[in-house]
């Protein structure tokens, strides 16, 4: 199963993209949802700080990456983000690289 980044391509394959993460993380972070089953399939992460291309997070996996996170002024400009699938939610933790590790946690209920 391949996950494509274009909205039109995703719809043609029976997926839709929920872009709720764009306000929190990098604008190119998306969640793909199956149109028929209405369940999440994967997270697409495209970080300009790392190798080009999409990193796919499937259920049961954890992804740790560097992002520039908007809206969290407590965090420094380089922020680490860990996302993983829970049984009924997508959990994410964002934290900076400072020694005291300022941290923001969030939960997206499916």
From TrEMBL:
A single BP term in Gene Ontology: rejection of self pollen
GO cellular-component term (any): extracellular region
Keywords attached to this entry: Secreted, Self-incompatibility, Signal
One Pfam family in the UniProt entry: Self-incomp_S1
Subcellular location: Secreted
InterPro entries: Self-incomp_S1
Keyword Signal included in the entry's annotation: yes
Highest taxon above the source species: Eukaryota
Family: Belongs to the plant self-incompatibility (S1) protein family.
Protein name: S-protein homolog
Species assigned in the record: Vitis rotundifolia
Taxonomic placement: Eukaryota, Viridiplantae, Streptophyta, Embryophyta, Tracheophyta
